[in-house]
Design a protein that fits this description.
The chain contains no helices and eleven strands. By secondary structure, the protein is mainly beta. It is globular.
Length: 117
């Protein structure tokens, strides 16, 4: 089993930055960050393979967001720059399952990100 706990969400103005963290236990094969807005399903926006570090991004965040993992601390990060109002939502850390998709097996409880214009 993989346990996940996110932190680092908050409110920021457009153009600002935030870094999300996800403390995790277990030995996940892959991890990702997903975003959910009211009325919609969770959408994968950034993904990483824990062995080798291969990453994949949704077009909406490519070039602005960076996913990384610190193996020593068992922590997953999402560095978010040039945030825009459309980036607002609940952000979930996820692990294993259908890697690189919207459908992982394990999820954290989420952390809210709000970007004001």
């Amino acid at each position: 089993h993989v346990f996940l706990r996110e932190s680092g969400g908050g409110s920021v103005q457009a153009g600002g930055s935030l870094r999300l963290s996800c403390a995790n236990s277990g030995d996940p094969f892959c991890m990702g960050w997903l975003r959910q807005v009211p009325g919609s399903k969770r959408k994968g926006i950034a993904h990483i393979l824990t062995n080798g570090g291969h990453t994949k991004y949704d077009d909406s965040v490519e070039g602005r967001f960076t996913i990384s993992r610190d193996d020593a601390d068992n922590t997953l990060y999402l560095e978010m720059n040039n945030l825009q109002p459309e980036d607002s939502g609940m952000y979930y850390c996820a692990a294993d399952g259908l890697c690189g998709t919207d459908d992982y097996h394990y999820y954290g409880q989420g952390t809210q990100v709000t970007v004001s214009a």
